[in-house]
Design brief:
The chain is of the alpha/beta class and 170 residues long. Helices cover 18% and strands 29% of the residues. It has three helices and seven strands. Strands 1, 2, 3, 4, 5, 6 and 7 form a seven-stranded mixed sheet that branches. The N terminus is likely disordered.
């Protein structure tokens, strides 16, 4: 897998391309645990299930939560497989390996067009579903601490803790 560039606020200097891209992102973000975030961006997941409704509409940042268990990964994989039996995915689409999913930052944007209590979407299995469309992955991962509910992610930019990967000299 190609290594993805990670943008961090300590790297921002003047008008670097990374900082310009960050300026263009929506103000609000919502945290979603991986691999569901990947499913929104790449697998056609058009509903985000929640226990609470929202009146927020429009484009928001998609934050991949820092935590993800093996059980959550396997559950999502089983769900994707079950959905693929009635709603085939494009050939070659594959869920990345557990350790290859980016976590703890902004990975894309998505438009919220509604909030429903019932849906025919195979992705709906919650009390409420935020209806999603036009998901767009970011070229560069923006490391930032998440929060519950919708949050102003720029307020958390300096709070993300960077842990070097095993074998790193940093």
């Amino acid at each position: 897998m190609a290594r993805q560039r990670v943008w961090h606020p300590r790297e921002a200097r003047g008008s670097e391309a990374g900082s310009v891209a960050v300026i263009d992102l929506p103000e609000l973000a919502i945290s979603v645990r991986q691999p569901w975030t990947w499913a929104i961006l790449h697998g056609g997941k058009n509903i985000e299930n929640r226990d609470w409704p929202t009146k927020i509409r429009g484009r928001v940042c998609l934050h991949a939560s820092k935590g993800m268990t093996r059980d959550e990964y396997e559950d999502c994989l089983a769900t994707i497989h079950a959905i693929s039996l009635t709603h085939p995915f494009p050939p070659g689409l594959a869920l990345p390996a557990f350790d290859d999913l980016p976590r703890g930052g902004i990975v894309g944007t998505v438009e919220i067009t509604g909030c429903v209590a019932d849906s025919d979407s195979p992705w709906f299995f919650g009390r409420y579903g935020f209806v999603l469309r036009n998901a767009e992955p970011l070229a560069d991962f923006v490391q930032v601490k998440g929060a519950l509910g919708f949050f102003k992610w720029r307020d958390n930019l300096g709070l993300a803790k960077i842990k070097p990967k095993q074998g790193s000299l940093l």
